[in-house]
TrEMBL record:
Protein name: HAD hydrolase-like protein
Any Pfam family hit: HAD
InterPro entries on file: HAD-like_sf, HAD_sf, LarE, Ni-pincer_cofactor_biosynth, PGP-like_dom2, Rossmann-like_a/b/a_fold
Annotated organism of origin: Nocardioides caricicola
Amino acid sequence: MPDQLVVGFDLDMTLIDTAPGFRDVLAALGAELGIEFPVEEMTAKLGPPLDMLLEPHLAEDAIAGAIDRFRALYPDHAIAGTPAFDGAHEALAAVRRHGGRNVVVTGKFAPNARLHLDHLAFDVDHLAGQVWGVGKADVLRQEGATIYVGDHVHDVEGALAADAVSVSVLTGGCTREELEAAGTHVVLDTLHDFPAWLDEHLLQLRLAALETDLEQRGSVLVAYSGGADSAFLLAAAVRALGADNVGAATGYSHSLPIAERDPAREFAESLGVEVLTPETHEMEREGYRANGADRCYFCKAELLDVLGPLAAAHGLAHVATGTNADDAVAGFRPGIRAAAERGAIAPLRDAGLTKAQIREASRRWDLPTWDKPAAACLSSRVAYGVEVTPFRLGRVERAEVAVRSVLSDVVNLRVRDLGDRASVEVDAALLPLPADTERSLLDAVRGAGFDAAEVDPRGFRSGSMNEAL
């Protein structure tokens, strides 16, 4: 997995419109000192340290005292009236959405900067104050920031010195031309544009990482179920390595719905990839049949124990699974452990690609699987502790086919085998079902082999069996 995303933000004129409050504090300070500061001129390009702003107007020996008094006046004159720029909260939320950390690195006196963050309820993990220009680089490196967002040419200097991507917004006093001349990588009109930029930046960064990883592997056999993740991995491998260096292997067993087999083969063959369909015998593993919380471990162990020798026999250097970055942080995933123990690689996870990014990239590549609903193996429908048998898997598959014949507009569907009855999960937007439709649906499920059935009023929930763990 790549390192956690960390994004640094400047404060004044980047996240907050400091100018009105700054003017009020200067006016109050000037009144105390008997000096009429040119406040409009002094606030035209906020960002430089306070001593630099005061230097042209005060004697050298008076500056330190004036700074102390400015900071003391600041809370009463500048906090309540200083607004967040439009898009500031959304920019911070965009980083959070990608599992990242927000760091504010500012030249402002740290206690006053903290008052702004608290007053505006900014979602920030770390604040560093009283740092300026290239001095910001030390903090950015220490925090692991790879992106720094600011409004001033000196923010650009700090980002570049830290080897971070410099993102500039035009809400401060610097022009686009000045920022570009300073070397910024990106200029945005406002922070409103930042979430979309971040989404695209991370997608391209991670796709490039995936391509590099696959190129270095030389050849791969993809553990291929035909779902969105493994189909995308297969397509990416062909792009990086060429079809002759890529294989697809789909383990045929009772747990793979028959309806999934032909579409999966057709997609792989459309890429020019040889499709191997070895039989797997997870049902012969006691731990799999017992269906404890670690059932997926035994399933994945069986699959990888079959695919490892198969890859070697076909001269393919690695077995690759479609595990993505979301899977890696989703909590209890014993199958991932089984694959890792057997040396399988997970290029999507290692590149940091999330499910949403995989679907977006698949859409751009015109892959038919880009919006394919998640389709976990049939065994995932059987409640933990209820023995997995070919009979149980067969009636679950029959029941789901029957439900789709009744409810043609359903997208996400699971028939859960709870041992003594079936629980039917469909898209929550379809609930509650009309009474006659629900009767027909439950009749169809009972006709598939269940003695009793009910519709779950909470609707479809991926991994709902894990709720009982």
